[in-house]
Amino acid sequence: MKISNTLIQMRKGILECCILHIISRGEVYASDMMEELKEAKLIIVEGTLYPLLNRLKNAGLVNYQWVESDSGPPRKYYTITDEGRSFLEELSEYWANLDKSVKLILSKKSQKKNGTSS
User: Fold this and answer.
1) pLDDT tens digits for 69-92?
2) pTM summary value
3) Does an H or E element contain 79, and which?
4) Chain center to CA of 18
5) What would the CATH number be for the domain defined by 26-99?
């Protein structure tokens, strides 16, 4: 089994939650999202971000609007919908519980019973 496949699957769900959280703070442009993710060491490319944003839009979790730019073409700014906020609340609650559970498991030391590790 390749570790890369597992890491990719873990990352996909986390990215969706992080992107929704970024958008929930206010109107945001895609390149600003990418910059924040990069700063957090969650490097993402446009080929990953835009399909994810389209899925979130099609699911009714985010909206966007075109805004004229003084320095080039119009920009697409994203906002979260009421449905998106509810979805993010559920994701955040689940993440907090999952994080707590994983930390509990990872913090336990190996115990030897009858000469074997468990």
Assistant:
1) 888 889 999 999 999 999 999 999
2) 0.82
3) strand 72-80
4) 3
5) 1.10.10.10
